[in-house]
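Table S7 (text form). Paired inputs.
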Amino acid sequence: MPRTLGRYWLVLLLALSALWSLVAPVDASPSAASPTSAIVGTPVRGVYVRAPRGATTASRPLQVLLALHGMGGNGEDFSRELIEQADHYGWLIVAPTIDYGDWTNPNVVAREDPLLIRSLSDYLDQLPQLMNIQTRRLVLVLGHSRGAQLAHRFAEFRPDRVLAVAALSAGTYTLPQTTGAQVSFPFGLKDLSQYAGHAFDPQRFTGIPFWVGVGGQDTNAADLPRQWDTIEGTTRVQRAQAFEAAMQRLGANSVLRVFGNARHEVTPEMRLAACAFLGNAMLPRAPHGTPLSLSPLSY
């Protein structure tokens, strides 16, 4: 075979191999992982899926961890530091890569997040067939920064699909309230039916365990859009506190953790605390909502 023709076939084979890696279903064998194709018509460029070590298609349904990266990130990189904990707790990582729009513009957020939530919900519904695995209906959601903003809104829109949420260092929050000043989405939930097709369901929502984390030094007001100032404060710490206060007024199951000298980052301590909280949320719960755990986890 001529050398040039041989090179041609080699390039063709490599190209076909790369194409297959984008569409091949995940084999739920130890530490298997697969990027999948984009969700058409949305800012989702692809979804990285990784089964926990030791999982098989014959195993009991897997617990999904929906992992949401921040601005400029991608699902696979964001998931890399979660693999050890995912294997420990038996989580199937589902990590979309999202081309977020201008998160500082409330009008953009009001258009973008409902579309993302609807698309990701549909994807999760189709996941068992796409990947030939069984999954639990209720998902864990973990997000950082812009991903934390999407994470808590996902629970507000779809409390029927969420087991627990860990939101790290969100820049803005949609407060879980429908009355008072400035409560239209994305500031509040008074008009949620216009975006989700149904009104806010406080009864379901308050049953979701929430963990909100933020760095104690994440206090640069210049990093944040000003439209949320009057209702949430000017820094990520103040806004996390405002969200937690709104959750407490609602009677929601929520805890706020401020991490001393941490800035706008995900430190190992923050990551472990978030994962411990989500792991604890998987435990059976007493009638009053307390996890049935012999050794309480620190989060």
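Next pair, protein 2 of 2.
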Amino acid sequence: MNLEGLDASILGPACVAGAIVLSTHVPLGQQVLRRGIIFIDLAIAQVAALGVIGAQYVGIEEQGIGVQLAAAGAAVLGALGLSWTDKRWPHYQEPLIGTLFVLAATGALLLLANNPHGGEHLKDLLVGQILWVSWHQLVPAAVLSAVLLGVIAWRRERLDGLWFYGAFALAITVSVQLVGVYLVFTTLIVPAIATRYFKRYRLAACYALGALGYAVGLGVSLFADLPPGPLVVCCMTALGLVVLLLSSRGRAPT
């Protein structure tokens, strides 16, 4: 990609996609960090990706509503299962989350085993294609994210049990298809960890860090002709490390 691609038709939808993902993932990321279930986002994201692959496997149109429903259904089922195990075996929740991730990942590999384009499909779901997101894709994502933000604000400190897992599953479903599994994990975890020493304005700092990570990563991608998803991951992580190092000196974690 060259500088001629540096226009609103490419950067506009990509930046809005990043903002949509950040809107729900920043508050949910803080919840994940507080609960100590760091890898739940990877697990649910992989389950949602399995839903997408499963829908395509049975012949459902790639950009159709059927794929969206399959991804949401798979993510919600995975979240309900984790909600149940959280009540029954709370001390084993993290290894159970890891097991779910491995099962979903291997299931996706099995479904794609005989697909000549399977490797490309899997890559798209993992690293995302944020620069090729269309305005048409963003409308339902924005509406659902607004609803989820309302639920998160309404429940506030009572976002637990099925409320937490359900909201989490739907947010992940939206974001995986916009930015990919790896960027979903980074958006959830890096801002939350980087600002853990902040005593004031932590939520605003998370949003600012995430937005800067997306902006720098997308900009470097356009100039350097490199994949945007991995670059955003690297830029946001580097920025997060700088913030964590600067804010951690002489302070206790919040």
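Residues 1-6 have pLDDT under 50 and may be disordered.
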